[in-house]
Design brief:
171 residues; alpha/beta
Amino acid sequence: MQGQKYVVYTDGGVKRVKCPDGCAKNTYCWTGVASGVILQCVGKEQILVDQYSASLAHGTISRCEIMAPLLAIHRLEMAGAVVDSVEFFSDSKYFVNNFNLAPKGFYNRDRNRRNEFRPHIDIWDQFIAAKDRHKMKAFWVKGHSGVEYNEYCDLLCAAVFRGEIKIDYYL
């Protein structure tokens, strides 16, 4: 069976919130969200097949930006989609550059050449496994520049923060 091509637009965001009880008085922490839109390519058309959102209890912006595309892969695989290739579109240069440009060794070492801890290695390890199963490429789009689905993902993140839409994942 021949696999399908998918296009995924993602975005992440963080918001400063008052820490829950048990934290020091008047302290704040960051909560994050990740969102995405999955499109299936049929000929020259792109058909919306899914959208999702996630809440990260203690998320950094970088973690949210890289969780969003990883969740798309998980959603496609859990739905039993036969995936040939996936193209990610993100306004996060952190995600796009690390995903496309870094050698495999970047992902599977938890320390860099200067012996500094490499953040988010747990997520990058999952991308290595997914890259072995599917052809994947990431493209950068300028945020807030009118790219339709990128803007839509940004709206999804904002709607999660306002409590207006259902959250699919709590991470």
